[in-house]
């Protein structure tokens, strides 16, 4: 299965980053390519990508606060995004593992670019909410 792992750091506490990862309604603020999100049943939401207002993409979101993990699975493309947060002094290490099915392998580099940009925006947004910064 094609995939990649990226790691970044935010100068913000884990709690600030967690708030952004846990709440799909906040994804358009930092997740590159996400235009709109509508929440559904617990653990489910629908995302519309930028430029495709007629292309809803159902998603599943699973969280494990104790281990600092948030896993998002696209129900259309079967791409999985496993986010993990860890304390690093007063900051947070952000890691994401992205796995794509073989039929989506052609999207690997595009996803790597989008997720890299998203990690940077996520860290910046968490840092701006950090009262200790």
Please give a structural write-up:
The protein has three helices and seven strands. It has 133 residues and is α+β, with helices and mostly antiparallel strands. The chain has a single domain, classed as Alpha-D-Glucose-1,6-Bisphosphate, Chain A, domain 4 (2-Layer Sandwich), CATH 3.30.530. The chain has a seven-stranded antiparallel β-sheet with strand order 1-7-6-5-4-3-2. A hairpin with a 2-residue loop joins strand 6 (80-88) and strand 7 (91-99). Helix 1 (14-22) packs across helix 3. The model has no long low-confidence stretch (mean pLDDT 93).
Query: What sequence of helices (H) and strands (E) makes up the elements?
Result: EHHEEEEEEH
Helix content: 25-40%
Q: What is the 3D form?
A: globular
Separation, N- and C-terminal Cα atoms: 40 Å
How would you characterize the largest beta sheet?
7 strands, antiparallel
Kindly report the average pLDDT value: 93
Number of helices: 3
Nutshell version of this structure?
Helix content is 26%, strand content 39%.
Task: Give me some keywords for this one.
133 residues; alpha+beta; Alpha-D-Glucose-1,6-Bisphosphate, Chain A, domain 4; 3 helices; 7 strands
